[in-house]
Amino acid sequence: MHDISALLLELGAVVLGVSLLGLIAHRVGISPIPLMLLAGLALGSGSFIDLEAAEPFIEPAAEIGVLLLLLMLGLEFTAGELGQSLKRHSTSGAIDFALNASAGFGIGLILGMPWQAALALAGITWVSSSGIIARLLDDLGRIANRETPAVLSILVIEDIAMAIFLPILIAVLTGAAWWQALGAVALAVAAVTVILVASQRASGGIRWLLSHPSDEQVLLRLFGITLLVAGLTQLLGASAAVGAFLVGIAVPPSIAERARAILGPLRDLFAAIFFLSFGLPIVPADLLPVLPAALLLAVVTFATKMATGWLAAKRDGVLVKGRLRAGATLVARGEFSIIIAALAVGAGYPELGPLAACYVLILAIAGPLAARFIVRAPRRDAALA
Q1: Each residue's pLDDT tens digit, 337-375
Q2: What is the three-state SS of 125-141?
Q3: CA–CA separation, 108 vs 92, rounded Å?
Q4: CA distance 41 to 21
Q5: What is the model's pLDDT at position 383?
Q6: Cα 327 versus chain centre, distance
C-alpha cells in the first residue's frame, strides 16, 4: 500500500509540474521541450528529489510517448507522399550521414578515442531525435510547412539506416564475426522492407478496423495496432518508432483527422513523460568534466545539421527561411544517441556515457530554441516560405 501511495504522489507531482512548465512555455512563446528536459535533469540522479517509486512507470511510459509522437506525425501524410519524398531525398540522407557521422568520428579520434569508440560517437552525432522533432513541429505549427516533408524524409532515412548501423556497431564493439553482423543487417533490412510494403497495402484493412462509431473503440484499436507493429519492428532489429510512423501513414486520410483528435490528449500526456525522462538518469556532476568536449561536438554538429536541413529543403524548392527552419528543426539529438552510447559503455568504453549525455542534453535544448527563434516570422506566413 505504501508503494502505491508513493507512486501516485510522485506521478501526481510530476504531471502537475509538467502542466506548470507547459503554461510557462506558452506564456514565453517557446516549445515546452527545453523546460521539461531541464526539469528531468533537476529531478534525476543525484538530485535532492527522489522519484524512485515512479521510475518503473516512467520508463515504459516514455517509450509509449515516442511511439505516439511518431504515430501522430504519420497521420499527417500518406504512403504515396512518403514514398515520393524518400526517393527524392536519398541523396539528402547520404549527405546527412557524410556531414554528421564524419564529424563525430573525426572529433572522437582528435579526442584520443579508439576508433571503435569514435565509430559509436559517429552514430551519436549523426541521428536526430524523431521524438523531439515530432513534438516540435506540432508545437510550432509547422506540420503543413513546405520544408516539413524534407525533414521527415531525413528522420525516416536515419531511423531505417539505424537497422544497418547498429548491428555493424555492435559487431565492432564486441569483436563479433563479420558474418554475424551481416546476418543481423539482412534481417533488419528485410523487416523494414516488409513493413514499408505492408503500410502501403494495409489501408483497406485499417479503414475497416477503425470505421466504428465509438471513439473508445477507435482509440483502443489504433493504439493496439501501433504497439503490436512497433514491437514487431523492434523485435526484427529495426526501430519501433519507424513502425509507429508507418502505422500512421497507413491510416486512410478519411479517418486520420478523427484519429488525431482522439489520440491528441493521450499523446500529450505520454510525450510529456518522455521529455521529462530524458534527464532522469543523468548525474549533473558527471557533466562538468566533459563539458568542453561536448560543446565542441555540439557547435560542429549544430552547423552540419543546419547544412543537412538547408540542402534537403533546397531539393524541394523551399525558400531561404524554410531551409533555415529545416536545418534548425533537425538539430536536436535524443533517444537513438543515448542508445548508442549505452551500447558503447556496455562494451567497455565508459568515457562515452557522460560525453553523450552532455552532448545530447545541449542539443536537445538548443535545437527547439533554435527552431523557434531562427526565423521570427508570423505563423500564418510560415507555410508559404
Answers
A1: 888 888 888 888 988 989 998 999 899 999 999 998 887
A2: HHCCCHHHHHHHHHHCC
A3: 24
A4: 14
A5: 42
A6: 15
pLDDT tens, position by position, 55-98: 888 889 988 988 998 898 888 777 777 777 778 898 999 999 99
Cell representation of residue 350: 565508459
Q: What cell was used for 160? A: 531505417
User: Distance from first CA to last CA of the chain, Å, rounded?
Assistant: 57
Cell 531505417 belongs to which residue? 160
If you write DSSP's letter for every residue of 203-269 in order, what string do you get?
A: HHHHHHHH--S-HHHHHHHHHHHHHHHHHHHHHTTS-HHHHHHHHHHHS-HHHHHHHHHHHHHHHHH
Q: Give which of 17, 18, 23, 150 is closest to 88, Cα–Cα.
A: 150
CB count in 10 Å sphere of residue 102: 14
Quick one: cell of 332?
536536436
* Per-residue model confidence (pLDDT) at position 182: 76
- Give the position of cell 515516442: 66
| Cell numbers describing residue 161 | 539506416
